[in-house]
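Hey forum,

I'm writing up a methods section and want to include a predicted complex as supplementary material. The small molecule is 2-acetamido-2-deoxy-beta-D-glucopyranose. I've pasted the protein sequence and the SMILES. Can someone with a working setup run it? I'll credit the forum in the acknowledgements.
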Amino acid sequence: MKLLGSVQSIHHFIILHGLVVLLFAYQYKAQSPGASSSSASSLNALLQDYAYRALVRPHTGVIYPGNVPSNLTGIGIAAVRLRSGSLRRKGIIFNEFEIPTGLIVQPYVRRLVLVYHNLGNWSSFYYPLPGYTYLTPVLGLLAYDATNLSATNLPELSMVVSESFISINFTNATHVLSGTDARCVWFDVNGSPDFQQLVSINTCSTYRLGHFSIVVNSSEIAPSPVPSLPPGPVPSPGGSKSSNSKAWKIAGGVVGGLVALAALTLIVYYIRQRKNKKVAQLEQHADAGVSLQTARVGNTQIPVASGTRTLPVLENELVA
Ligand SMILES: *[C@@H]1O[C@H](CO)[C@@H](O)[C@H](O)[C@H]1NC(C)=O
Ligand SMILES: *[C@@H]1O[C@H](CO)[C@@H](O)[C@H](O)[C@H]1NC(C)=O
Ligand SMILES: *[C@@H]1O[C@H](CO)[C@@H](O)[C@H](O)[C@H]1NC(C)=O
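Reply by user p_vandermeer:
Happy to help. Structure tokens for the complex are below, copy them as they are.
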């Protein structure tokens, strides 16, 4: 019985070990597709391509809305072609972005295209920000050379403001609660965040191009341990690009693995307990076969012979 028990527990251990290895392999697989640090910049390249497709013999200074491929439904894009000189002299209002006069593009190009992104429900997929909740969609404004309107993989131009800042008016951010620590966040073309104060309840300002949103520390709007859903974008398991969120995923995987290990251990323990109970019962029955049964007489237990031993019935039958 003892030997059988230890063989079984080795068996259980092997099964358990196999399951844990499988679980870790699954966790690793689950986090690998979104962990690319280039997802935000490859999205920029794709959206540049699709925004340029809207510019078919474009009029200078006219905003052309574009179409995104169906696998990115929910993202809005638009493009406008401008002469660098007129942009510097006149500025432009491009959806939520208000570009003041005096803006200079670097490196210098004669004509440029401004590409606008509204990432909508894809905001936290492409720009995950652990610990923060988006109060507005992530909006992007990027500049490219307009020399060749069928070019792809163009490098982003940078901008220098010489007079006043670009302002971003998040018209649909009126639900930002006063008293909360809402902040502007800016992402560079590689997706690295930088935080700034709001100019007003729904306005951010910037001297750079890139992606922008208004965020709040998630603990301020979700004091309970179960976080409430953010108003628009829902965090997705994929699309990670910051090393911070990667670390969180690895930590999550380890914790998940440990929880699963504990659960499996409990299950195996339970099965073994049940088996042991059964074995104990069997042993008790076997013992009962060789030991004397007891009967209660008055206040004392006395041993009595088991009825099955002497088979009195047979004698009675012989007598009868
Ligand atoms: C979406 O589709 C386009 C064209 O069909 C493709 O080039 C692109 O890689 C896809 N993007 C994603 C994120 O799946
Ligand atoms: C965003 O919404 C569209 C439908 O409006 C859907 O097809 C798409 O999968 C959503 N994106 C995310 C990341 O949930
Ligand atoms: C959010 O606020 C809590 C409590 O004030 C703080 O401990 C936490 O570090 C903040 N999170 C972030 C991402 O700033």
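Some notes you might quote in the supplement: The helical segments are 2-31, 39-53, 84-90, 123-126, 218-221, 243-290, 307-310, 312-319. The two ends are 46 Å apart (CA to CA).
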